[in-house]
Predict the 3D structure of the following.
Amino acid sequence: MALRDPVAVYNAASNVEAHLVRNVLLQSGVQAYVTEDVSQVGTWMFGLLPEIHKPQVWIDTADIDRAQPILEDYERRAAERRGADDGAGMEPPIEVTCEACGRCSLFSRTQRGSVQDCPHCGAYVDVEGDEVMDAWPQRPGEQTEG
């Protein structure tokens, strides 16, 4: 069955991870599809270049509310398997709203602080997370102007 209003909900690190996420969604009753990166554009002699290889998992927009807790659980379990002790993987994915098209996308916490392509329109989006710095941090002993 084709998706009526498709939305990319997960940017995977590899084609294998994209298929793992798809299988988790399918087992939970959420129809999902994978767009694999099979191009040779990001290939060099030591493997794939980071940020070029972007397989994605797509679902219908109507299933976002059902998919979100499944993706959060996947991220939590993946962090446990990696033995992440920084706590970043224990948090839910980062929801980013594209300034160009206004649509939301979920990105892994491991992509915090990076610039990604909007899966809807291709514009650049900053994956900031919850805390966005308004100003440069001060050095100890510096006074703020005001």
